[in-house]
Amino acid sequence: MFRRGMCVAAAFILAAVAVAILMMPGESEAIPAFTRQTGEVCSKCHFITWPALNDYGRQFKRRAYTYVREEALVKPSGSLSIPVTLNATLVVSAKYTNATTNGVAPRAPGYTNGTWSLPLEAPVLIAGRLGRNVGFFGELGQEDGKTANGTLAAVWKMVSSFDMGDFRMGLNVFNTFYGWTAGLETTNVFGQHGEVLNGADVSALTSIGMTKLNTQGITLWAGNHLWTIGLTGMVPDVYKVGKNNFGTTMIPGIRLAFTPTVMGWDLDVGGGILDGTAGGVDPATGLRFAGAHMGFLDAQAQGEIGDDVSIGVYADYAHTVAKGGVKYNLFGATPLEFDETGALIGGDAQPNDRTDGWSLRAMVKPVEGWIFGGGYGETRNTTASGVSSAMRIWNIGIIREIYANAEIKLLYGQQRLDALYPANPTSITASPVTQTTKSTTLQFEALM
Question: Would the pTM count as exceeding 0.90?
Answer without folding.
Answer: no
